[in-house]
Amino acid sequence: MIEVRNISKQFKVYQALNDVSFTVKEGSVTGLIGPNGSGKTTLIRIMNGVLGASRGQVTINGLDAARETEKVLAMCGTLPNIVVYMTI
């Protein structure tokens, strides 16, 4: 399970994320969708422990992403910049 709690990220004067929270249950397939500059990549980097949050916490299967980065990276995979086209 992934738990993102009250994540905020400030880059000098730019607020990239502000109080983002959500839970992804085991076995789910989840995507982040939003316009350019909305903080998707920043959030993924924080979730993987590659970038520190200004505030908040991410846990993945009970591991703190900021403190146990190597273990988190060993169990996670991301597919950045994937475009999915659907026809109806």
3D architecture notes:
By secondary structure, this protein is α+β, with helices and mostly antiparallel strands. The chain is 17% helix and 33% strand. It contains two helices and four strands; from the N terminus they run E-E-H-E-E-H. It has helices at residues 40-47, 69-75; strands spanning 2-11, 14-24, 55-60, 63-64. It has a four-stranded antiparallel β-sheet with strand order 2-1-3-4, covered by helices on one side. A hairpin with a 2-residue loop joins strand 3 (55-60) and strand 4 (63-64). The longest helix has 8 residues, at 40-47. The chain is globular, with a radius of gyration of 13 Å. The mean pLDDT is 87.
Write the layout of secondary structure elements.
Elements: E1 2-11, E2 14-24, H1 40-47, E3 55-60, E4 63-64, H2 69-75
Antiparallel strand pairs: 1-2, 1-3, 3-4
Termini separation: 32 Å
Number of strands: 4
Lateral arrangement of strands in the main beta sheet: 2-1-3-4
Kindly provide the radius of gyration, computed on alpha-carbon positions and rounded to a whole number of angstroms. Answer: 13 Å
In short:
The protein is α+β, with helices and mostly antiparallel strands.
Top keywords for this entry?
88 residues; alpha+beta; 2 helices; 17% helix; globular
